[in-house]
TrEMBL record:
Cofactor(s) it depends on: Mg(2+)
Subunit organization: Homodimer or homotetramer.
Residues annotated as the enzyme's active site: 143 (proton acceptor)
Binding site for substrate: 141-143, 178, 185-187, 238, 279, 285-288
Name of protein: ATP-dependent 6-phosphofructokinase
EC number(s) given by UniProt: 2.7.1.11
A GO biological-process term: fructose 1,6-bisphosphate metabolic process
Annotated function: Catalyzes the phosphorylation of D-fructose 6-phosphate to fructose 1,6-bisphosphate by ATP, the first committing step of glycolysis.
Keywords assigned: ATP-binding, Cytoplasm, Glycolysis, Kinase, Magnesium, Metal-binding, Nucleotide-binding, Transferase
Marked site: Important for substrate specificity: 119
Location in the cell: Cytoplasm
The keyword Metal-binding is annotated on this UniProt entry: yes
Cellular component, GO annotation: 6-phosphofructokinase complex
Amino acid sequence: MSVNRAIGIMTSGGDCAGLNAVVRAVACAAHEQYGWKVYGILDGTSGLITRPLRYVELGGSAMDSSCLRSGGTFLGTTSKGDPLQFPMPDGSYRDFSPEFAEGAKMLGLDAVVVVGGDGSMRITSELCRRAGLGMVGIPKTIDNDVHGTDYAVGFATAVDVATEALDRLHSTAASHHRAMILEVMGRDAGYIAMTAGIAGGADIILVPELPYTLEEVSHKIRAVLDTGRSHVVIVVAEGVRREDGQSAVITYSGGEKRYGGIGHYLADRIAGMAGIETRPIVLGHLQRGGIPSARDRLIASAFGTAAVDLVAEGAWGRMVAWKSGTVTSVPLEDVTTGARLLAADDVLVCTAKALGIYTGGSAPFLKVSSAAS
């Protein structure tokens, strides 16, 4: 793609730390390397669908280093409604893809960089296909459940927040001789819980991918107490199901249902079964907000500049990815197939089991072979 082109960048889906660092990297690389105009599309796809259009022009010199340190996304985002089938007040559904295509044409866009999870990229890639608009994706989600990449923007900071929470819970749990249960985000994937649980010295880690029983959890608690310890720390991912197989959900105003409450469910039952005072703590949206970690700033910067290079090559329908310590790209059709889940033999699960952490399920210990020299 030659000079004097215009690209748009939008953030879509749930917010996380590192999004502004991505926007900064795209704007800086597009200006410095190619001399392009860059427009920040406000509030995801809705910025091109509503009238008047909602956008800001992003100057390379204006994207200073303060963007690296700021949380959230100054472009705004939304995680509600599918513009391909948007629910209307009268109960009908409307396809806003013509408005999206018209908006992109009005702004003179040659391509769009979309920062989102698998769901956001699936929807936006279809909108761009119908509009005849090039698209490149950048993975972001605290859940780290996007296929094709080892890491997504936002995951590292969320893990740091959860790990710090566990560090703090150890001391208060020990002071009161309690079992403390930390409920973390992650939807149907257990990457936050497993990673933070190992780093934070948890005794028990429960994730959606691995089955557990309350009897086994209680047995582990009693085993810990039998060593002379007076406290136990447990991490549970929000998507873990109750023993009856049902999800723990909270219904918000308007009828929206979200995962939540598994920590309280476990606390109510563990207290009696294990004979220890138990307190649940829901970490919630603290995992999404705040200052990005150094690792998230690095990944965001590498992803943003690599995405601009893909645009320059006309490599449409691809997502930048972090694989084996380097930045590469993968086809979007390999990404938008649903959530990437934690495998029973994942190195994280094997590490936790080797450390004596109860994780439920079954997984072999990790065996590392040495090659003869």
